[in-house]
User: Which sequence fits this backbone?
């Protein structure tokens, strides 16, 4: 089954009130915010990615979901497939670095053995508290769509990891993403809706619009690109479109009433309106949608 | 690395106070009890096990950890690898059956794709509340060791699943274990220590003794065996030893002060004393330890 059909089938099962009908990356339970992500070797990371970077990314992608709720970090549970001494030790080094960097504690977990040559499958569950942010479904017609940081660096970094020459700064954005925790704390009480950009700005903007029952228009020229990305990919429509459809950015995407200025570094990249679907413009002129809006599982 | 070394390394990372130094199957956080288990195709279940039974078992093994704390079930998060329509639909049927049977709700989760031919890896995280049971480390010298239900059925059922002729009742114990939730509620306020028997009675009794800083002696002849198991495996020392070292029972193992009678069906199978390690007797006479005390990951 594909992800959409499977989640639709899950919605027919008994759901917890805090599951938010499985329409958000976070669940709410007893004052806590819970999120979980699984990453798979050969799908979400490359077999030759350094194990310490895999550990970092596993932590970062989950904390990024907590950041999107403005949650304080309580800690994480790790489900880990034991492998070689060298891989496991390097993984532990990266795990320590990420936990220290983000002020995060280990709560528990499970270890398993995999059959020989099976791709590694790692799960992390992150728990936070005091999460004031509304769901991704809270955007209102007239709201502006904003995004923190720069977009597309990780997608370009993936191509560098795969062997295309390019700047190390892009590779670092792919391998050691930074969850926008501080930004999330400050934005959470102010926004109408917030989520992290994990699968691509366009696909995630479309998801926020769909969850909110609205249409969204994204101005591709407004999407913030880094100097490294511009040097690597150029500055035209194609480069902006590639950035907007690449995954793994872990920036925050949020809806604010028109005229409000966010208290963190961010750029307005679009507008919500009554209706449905996503539309693109390039310097104000309509642009056809690309075949893929982002990373599809 | 092996599991023991890896968990020892994890203990050197920043730990949450509710992690109980990673010495229990459950963590405590904000009044909630959290446990997580991963099961792997070819390791924890057979590739030709019915998908609905895999779903059931995934739920049951996690709820069994909540049962060992006497927790009320809040719900579960599922990390699921999408596969064929037929497998996924049969899994969903078993998931619904287990959720309905145990009065459990879905809180959230994540779906991923695996590379072609990769063994399925499934994770469930179960959350409970109001868990009065002490840790597995609470046993005291002089306490008796008790176990609910019958032991060894699931281990024999695994051999039936692998093709050895045997009763369907044993196969059912292997494929659709029952977490002892009602027993856990009643026992939790009374016991000094409690855990579920997941890897084998002997290995788990040894873990409870080690966590409590005690020695334990198990009387093999006292281990409760079902009529089906006795008919299948015979009644001698070898049959009791096989039952006591087989996994997947999901009965409750608990320590009570000498003389106390538990309010649920259970049998006394051993005694804690000052010291360390596990010793075995058969009708009162000392018996050497087998090479394997249970399922080792």
Assistant:
């Amino acid at each position: 089954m594909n992800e959409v059909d499977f989640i639709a089938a899950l919605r027919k099962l008994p759901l917890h009130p805090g599951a938010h009908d499985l329409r958000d990356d976070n669940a709410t339970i007893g004052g806590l915010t819970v999120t979980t992500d699984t990453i798979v070797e050969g799908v979400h990371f490359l077999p030759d990615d350094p194990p310490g970077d895999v550990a970092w990314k596993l932590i970062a992608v989950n904390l990024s979901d907590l950041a999107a709720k403005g949650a304080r970090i309580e800690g994480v549970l790790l489900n880990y497939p034991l492998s070689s001494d060298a891989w496991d030790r390097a993984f532990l080094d990266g795990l320590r670095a990420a936990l220290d960097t983000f002020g995060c504690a280990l709560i528990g977990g499970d270890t398993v053995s995999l059959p020989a040559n099976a791709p590694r499958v790692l799960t992390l569950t992150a728990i936070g508290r005091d999460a004031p942010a509304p769901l991704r479904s809270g955007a209102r017609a007239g709201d502006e769509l904003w995004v923190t940081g720069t977009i597309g660096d990780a997608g370009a970094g993936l191509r560098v990891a795969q062997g295309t020459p390019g700047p190390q700064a892009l590779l670092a954005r792919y391998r050691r993403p930074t969850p926008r925790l501080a930004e999330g704390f400050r934005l959470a009480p102010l926004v109408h809706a917030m989520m992290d950009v994990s699968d691509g700005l366009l696909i995630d903007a479309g998801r926020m619009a769909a969850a909110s029952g609205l249409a969204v228009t994204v101005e591709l020229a407004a999407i913030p690109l880094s100097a490294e990305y511009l040097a690597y990919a150029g500055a035209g429509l194609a480069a902006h479109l590639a950035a907007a459809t690449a995954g793994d950015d872990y920036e925050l995407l949020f809806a604010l009433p028109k005229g409000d200025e966010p208290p963190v570094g961010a750029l307005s990249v679009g507008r919500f309106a009554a209706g449905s679907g996503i539309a693109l413009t390039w310097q104000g002129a309509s642009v056809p949608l690309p075949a893929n809006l982002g990373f599809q599982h």
